[in-house]
Amino acid sequence: MPAEPEVAAAVRDAAQVFAGLGARVTEGSPDFAGADEAFRTLRAWQFEVMLGELLDRHPGELKDSLRQNVELGRKLTGPDVGRAEQLHTALFHRVRTFFSAYDLLLLPVSQVLPFGIGLEPPAEVAWVAMTDYLDWMRSAYPVTLTGCPALAVPAGFSAGGLPVGVQIVGPHRAGFAVLQAGHAFEQATQAGRRRPPGL
Fold first, then answer.
1. 38, 113, 126, 183: which could join 87 in a potential S-S bond, CB 3.0 to 4.6 Å?
2. Which of 196 and 148 is assigned the larger pLDDT?
3. Average confidence (pLDDT) over 144-157
4. Are 106 and 186 members of one domain?
5. In terms of domains, do 23 and 44 share one?
6. Which of 85, 101, 117 is the last residue of a domain?
7. Domain count along the chain
8. Is 199 a member of any domain?
């Protein structure tokens, strides 16, 4: 998944912090194949279940992205949802296997720096076109789909003073280990006490 250069740098810097704390750091990633399809299908299905009746009663009062998600959910068939659940299960087991060799996974919280509240999500990230408003969040939603504990920690600031975060992800049922890792990172970096340049 593409990430803006300052975001990618924050993840590399965080890995070096863990190396300095005595961790053996290597590059690796679970196989997230099928995560996009599973997430998007199950998300649309849930949007239809949660908001379908509201859309029917107040069709002009939901923003376009919500309406579109409900409409996508209404087009799904039983086999569509069944396939998504099969992909979801396969992902769960691949991630479980990944964590038999790794204790933690570091990745961006978001692939982009924060943008203004009035702006639409970015059309591209690191010169890669985004097909829709979900693409720029691809560093977060596959992790959610795995059911693994994840912690977002402040990792510093961009050159322009915008906050950058790093996700610390652990194996299933290892939430305490993830919290311990986050605490160690916070103590080592004092990131929560730092302020952007000029403040």
1. 38
2. 148
3. 94
4. yes
5. no
6. 101
7. 2
8. no
Name the more confident of 11 and 138: 11
Task: Give the residue numbers spanning the domain of 81.
Answer: 30-101
Query: Do 16 and 113 fall within a single domain?
Result: yes
pTM of the shown model: 0.89
Pick from 33, 76, 20, 74: which is nearest to 52 by CA?
Answer: 74
Which percentage of the chain shows pLDDT scores above 70? 99
Q: 25: Cβ–Cβ under 8 A, 6 or more apart, which residues? A: 15, 16, 18, 19
